[in-house]
Give the backbone structure.
Amino acid sequence: MDQQPPPSPLPLPLPLEGLTVVAVEQAVAAPFATRQLADLGARVIKVERIDGGDFARGYDTAAGGLASHFVWCNRGKESIALDLKDPRGRDVVRRLIAGADVFVQNLAQGAAARLGLDAATLCAAHPRLVAVDISGYGASGPYTDKRAYDMLVQCEAGLVSVTGTPGQPVKAGIPAADIAAAMYAFSGVLAALVRRGTTGRGGPVEVSMLEALAEWMGHPLHHTMHGGTAPARTGLAHAVIAPYDAYPTADGGRVLLSVQNDREWRRLAELVLERPELGNDSAYATNAARVSHRERTDALVATALGALDADEALARLETAGIACARLRDLREVADHPQLAARERWREVDSPVGPLRALLPPITLPGGTEARMGAVPALGEHTEAVLRAVGMTGEEIAALRRDGVAA
């Protein structure tokens, strides 16, 4: 008798399935952190202002009429609109927190404490709760009450000082301080949940944008503290490796390549520059020499690649075993062949219809695919959430009538 193959195992559930997160959040740092939790299966209840909601909803209208920041950071959440200045609005949030596993907030410094929604207060009342305070500069120190927006923190953390050209520092093209804080909040929640699994206690989690981004500044910061000099701003070029830059090609493209050691330089000289004698030329044979003669080194590479179109240049570099990349614009990234081949794009629902979005980069083989829920309309889930915490239709109507809920 032929043996039947064993049945395929059922996919593992999402790791945060069954957990509830309540978030009083705005802009990017907290919303991006809680979106990671939603993608991994958590129920995320987003508490928004009644007068327009999360102000990121109004940043632009690029995503089919919705704000691109909001679409990016808020899929898969339930939106409830409340006035937290009214004690009835705060009471609703406290009811939600009483049944939650995680609370996240990134209100202006001191605002959560005034509302009784800071991590220390909540964790004292709910020992199993993991409560996250995200701030610009932390809960103490001379900058505690200083306003903190992403570009300001990029400046304070030194990121702008090492980004750009020799003559012009520039900010990063993405909200790096917000993203750094979001990802440390996300990982902090996961660590606290693991600890709760062994001790039964949750506890506060504190993340500041400055401290998160300062950690990301590790290489230039240590280079400066221990080496005495800050890395130079070099545009797309690497400060201490040559050649490592983007070079124009004959068809108007740009190709970036990186030579990491002297063996690679010799291969580049022979197979791409077609000048094998340069491999052992004392002016170029070592990285130190190439950096000292950076302009001449770059000119040699630029001449060779400038005679080729981008595809030809990349093919020749790949054949030579030289790390390389195409300098893509964002439309090209949206059509990136690697993302397409790995089927990383999905559609998420929204108030304006389906929108294209990337799967989150955490892949759990053998598990259920990340939950990429809809982008919520402001207050879309207010009534359902209020009913779930035991409020009657009459009570809900009164909150709406008085402007406490929307």
User: Anything to note?
Assistant: The longest strand covers residues 43-48. The mean pLDDT is 95. The CA atoms of residues 258 and 296 lie 16 Å apart.
